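User: Quick sanity check before I run a bigger batch. Here is a single chain. Can you write out its predicted 3D structure?
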Amino acid sequence: MVKVTDNTLFKEAKRFIPGGVNSPVRSFKAVGGSPVFIKQAKGSKIYSEDNRVFIDYCLSWGPLILGHAYPEIIKKLNKAVKNGVSFGTATRLEIELASLIVKAVPSIKQVRLTNSGTEAVMAAIRLARAYAKKDKIVRFQNSYHGHADYFLNCEGVPLSFKKHTLTAPYNDIKKTKELVNKHKRDIAAIIVEPVAGNAGVILPEKGFLQGLRKLSDRFGIVLIFDEVITGFRISYGGAQGFFNVKPDLTCLGKIIGGGLPVGAFGGKKEIMKLLTPIGSVYQAGTLSGNPIAVTAGIVTLKALKKLNPYQELEKKTKRLCDGIISRAQDHGIRLKVNNIASMFSVSFEDTELFKRFFHGLLKRKIYFSPSMFEADFLSIAHTGDDIYNTLAAVNESFKNLRG
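Assistant: Done. Predicted structure follows.
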């Protein structure tokens, strides 16, 4: 019998899937080597096809704030599947999830469910353009809002798709004002990750988000918060609740599906009423509001409201991050650790050092996100022993880096 390894599985995957993966960052291109193939997960652990067990800080890129295979989610999903996996009709479950979101997120008065964060962002931009009756949008450098054409610089995207997209430096309200003033008659929307989760967990500087709110109000611009990562992660009310800044539209994903494919966008009623079937802005999705995904989302949001784990998660994350910084100092290693709530990132000036650090942890059964610019996360399933063992692995990895 041929031994199953990551290398053999990756070679097989590349025969049938471009690059061997269905999302590029899974390929380990940023860190080298073959991706780990996972067959099972529970709590804070993931289990590979060759039977290794890892403490997981990627958590499916953020959705699993309750940990893998949360018992109540599994219980409700097993029951829901028996009723059918998709209907293509309206369901009571959609109302329940929408109600939970509207009651939790300060700025959302109505919400529309989608199948992904990318879909949510695409629809929010379209809606903002229709409401403002303008075409241009402002985004920020190194931000990620999904793979819509007007956010990408890659082959296959005509220049005409990008001519209405303006880019400003994140956290620089002065330059953002200059850009907006130059194009103020044409800007429909400003879209921002309130915490830049895809750029290394960069926190907004004091006054930045508030400045965007004032700027949007001044020029009749729709302010969009992309909270696909931060929604229900930083607090139950998302980043906007945490920072007390209300956008006009909000994009959600990840946690609101409890690990299943989902997205949502919502905001003021006067904007949302432009959507079909009551308005003329078209947006649709055969599987939007899928009963299985919605079930997982309902269980997750109810659990978060009941447990209110945010303070404890923040303490655990700070303990881990402080421990990483302390051990780096012990070994004379220069790095940067950013964190907020239960999100964190570890970065080095030299990307080669990050690669060695990542594989040093992987060798010691610790799974971080395989990119220096992606966020890592903690869940309520992570224990004190998990953090202790992670810091021991970090210390050993730093020893090798120093050597």
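The two ends are 39 Å apart (CA to CA).

User: Great, the batch can go ahead then.
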